[in-house]
Task: inverse folding
């Protein structure tokens, strides 16, 4: 096939090419690049078979017309990515790509060198480095590998979902196991949830996070991978223990860990999850950010899944995970969400936990029954923080009316970890029926005083010390929004705390947590 015919074939094969390539031509080659008058040697379709799953480069297409090079790289992660300012210099094809998610690097540099008839492609997208060799393909290959765009429906009516009167509590696989998760471990967690008393303390959900997905079949039905032989049987096992079970997907083509997402299969996946018997879905933006980059499209993409879940007729708690973008708390309920992440990921260290818990836990105005700010899952029990720091973690989450999703190996819970996680008074604060999210009312030096009004008129009061050394502070009735305090209870011990207004010393990174009564 001649080059011209080839070019026409590529453009015809994938209608998106016309639009995808147009902006590239508009940018044209930079002035320093000598115009290429003949079609260049990079022109054509290049196929990549063994590129790592993130971002999963499958194809590169290059065309030269009127001396202007245009092209794109197709990935599993973001679909086709247009080449920006492509130009050939000293036998190397250079271009940049748009790099979202990283303000310091809004574009990334890519290069292609021809080596032994192969295209050696190097580049980067977000955290993934690309260094792969592709071989020449045909326009039929290009058609077969073309990315299929899925239409995004217009925003529908608000979805009435009342499935989380109090913040959901349970366990999720991600913090401890990442995507190294399997059926056996999930069953073991359900067993441990019961045997440790965590279920009876209020923890109900056993949530499988990223890493369960396998392939879609010819009908597009998503199947679990080999580590999960029978999802329905697993859900039955968890349900038989008086627990509920959760699953994970993304509105993008790929999840954050590079597994199959729900892009183009939203209704189908919702039906699958319901048929398996799932009670909870965490829906994580991941690669969807490329397709849904603004408030309007993100909201519609969540609404699409929220409506699909509602249409199954099964009550499925909908957990939004888009890292707090676009004031999610102002619209999370409308798309059927009961909780929405307010931040990026937590890690098992005080600095990250504190940054999130003190400063990124979401606007209290957004929170209340059936709609909760989610500052991410717990790290209690994972070993990276001191006992004082884990107490601060738990106290911050309870004061914030945050979902309590444990993230450690429940089988390895120490007595100390269980005492903290099952403390009935801290759980009662978290799940207070009024659902008012607490907040800082006073900051002095390294100390922060937080108050959270409770349904019975009492007030939870936390004296946090963010500093590296012990610090002291005398709480006041005013801190609790009261005129007089008549009694105070220490949440950790359950003992009455005499002399409420006395100066108290709080250890470094520690907390004193009280429930005070008065008027
Ligand atoms: C992240 C998400 C994490 C976890 C992970 C799975 O985007 O914030 O909580 O779900 O993806 O790949």
Result:
């Amino acid at each position: 096939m001649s080059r011209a015919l080839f070019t026409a074939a590529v453009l015809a094969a994938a209608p998106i090419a016309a639009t995808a390539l147009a902006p590239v031509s508009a940018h044209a080659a930079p002035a320093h690049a000598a115009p290429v008058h003949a079609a260049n040697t990079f022109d054509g379709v290049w196929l990549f078979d063994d590129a790592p799953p993130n971002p999963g480069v499958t194809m590169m297409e290059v065309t030269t017309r009127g001396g202007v090079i245009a092209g794109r790289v197709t990935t599993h992660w973001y679909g086709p990515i247009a080449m920006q300012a492509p130009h050939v210099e000293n036998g190397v094809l250079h271009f940049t790509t748009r790099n979202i998610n990283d303000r310091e690097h809004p574009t990334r540099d890519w290069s292609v060198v021809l080596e032994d008839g192969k295209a050696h492609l190097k580049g980067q997208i977000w955290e993934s480095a690309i260094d792969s060799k592709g071989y020449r393909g045909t326009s039929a290959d290009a058609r077969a590998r073309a990315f299929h765009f899925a239409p995004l429906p217009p925003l529908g009516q608000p979805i009435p979902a009342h499935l989380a009167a109090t913040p959901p509590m349970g366990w999720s696989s991600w913090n401890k196991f990442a995507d190294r998760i399997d059926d056996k471990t999930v069953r073991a967690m359900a067993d441990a949830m019961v045997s440790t008393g965590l279920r009876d303390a209020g923890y109900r959900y056993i949530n499988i996070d990223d890493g369960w997905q396998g392939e879609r079949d010819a009908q597009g039905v998503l199947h679990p991978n080999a580590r999960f032989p029978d999802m329905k049987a697993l859900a039955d096992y968890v349900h038989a223990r008086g627990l509920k079970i959760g699953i994970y997907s993304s509105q993008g083509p790929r999840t954050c860990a590079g597994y199959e997402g729900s892009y183009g299969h939203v209704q189908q996946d919702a039906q699958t999850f319901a048929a398996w018997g799932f009670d909870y879905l965490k829906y994580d933006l991941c690669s969807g950010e490329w397709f849904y980059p603004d408030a309007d499209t993100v909201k519609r993409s969540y609404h699409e899944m929220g409506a699909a879940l509602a249409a199954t007729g099964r009550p499925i708690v909908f957990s939004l995970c888009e890292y707090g973008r676009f004031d999610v708390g102002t619209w999370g309920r409308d798309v059927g969400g009961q909780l929405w992440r307010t931040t990026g990921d937590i890690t098992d260290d005080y600095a990250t936990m504190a940054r999130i818990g003190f400063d990124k836990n979401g606007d209290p105005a957004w929170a209340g029954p059936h709609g909760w700010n989610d500052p991410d899952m717990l790290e209690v029990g994972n070993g990276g923080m001191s006992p004082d720091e884990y107490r601060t973690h738990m106290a911050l989450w309870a004061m914030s009316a945050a979902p309590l999703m444990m993230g450690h190996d429940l089988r390895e819970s120490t007595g100390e970890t269980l005492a903290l996680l099952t403390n009935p008074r801290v759980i009662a604060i978290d799940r207070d029926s009024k659902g008012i999210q607490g907040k800082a009312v006073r900051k002095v030096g390294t100390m922060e005083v937080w108050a959270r009004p409770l349904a019975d008129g009492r007030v939870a009061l936390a004296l946090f010390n963010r500093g590296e050394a012990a610090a002291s502070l005398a709480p006041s009735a005013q801190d609790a929004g009261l005129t007089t305090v008549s009694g105070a209870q220490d949440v950790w011990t359950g003992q009455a705390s005499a002399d409420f207004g006395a100066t108290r010393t709080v250890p470094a990174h520690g907390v004193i947590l009280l429930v005070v009564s008065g008027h």
Q: What stands out?
A: The two ends are 86 Å apart (CA to CA). Residues 1-38 have pLDDT under 50 and may be disordered.
